[in-house]
Write a structure and sequence with these properties.
about 150 residues, single chain
Length: about 150
């Protein structure tokens, strides 16, 4: 069994970093202390320059946090629809995810069903946590829970 680096990582922060699809933002995980570093093309202060230099000078210490792909979000919606017991709502959602603007239409329909919308948010958050934990495992990090 391979040795894993045990780190205390802010799992919610990691999930948020992975869900930020902006090409102007990058997030890095500090493999020494579990800190998540945020870099933006729009912020060029001394702290940001220092962080960029640190990352460049210590490439083994920092791991670029991957951005979630829209395909994953789409698959989450399709998987969620399979759990919807209201046949009419399931049919509406299936039509919503077919074609352009699927994400917007899906959210618009769910906004009219608050109970199911809440269930969707929990489902989506659970999937986000699963992806974050899988990524940590892939890079050899064991999450320390306190």
């Amino acid at each position: 069994m391979e040795n894993k680096n045990s780190l205390k990582v802010d799992l919610d922060g990691l999930c948020q970093a992975m869900e930020d699809n902006s090409y102007e933002h990058d997030y890095y995980l500090d493999l020494n202390n579990g800190e998540i570093l945020f870099l933006s093309e729009y912020i060029e202060d001394d702290d940001t320059k220092e962080q960029k230099d640190q990352i460049e000078d210590n490439p083994d210490r920092y791991e670029l946090i991957p951005k979630a792909e829209s395909r994953e979000g789409y698959e989450d919606m399709v998987d969620f629809i399979a759990t919807v017991t209201d046949e009419h709502l399931a049919e509406l959602l299936e039509m919503a995810v077919d074609g352009k603007d699927a994400f917007r239409r899906f959210k618009d329909i769910l906004s009219r069903y608050p109970k199911e919308q809440g269930r969707w948010f929990r489902f989506r958050d659970d999937r986000s946590v699963e992806r974050a934990l899988e990524w940590l495992d892939e890079i050899g990090v064991a999450l320390v829970v306190e």
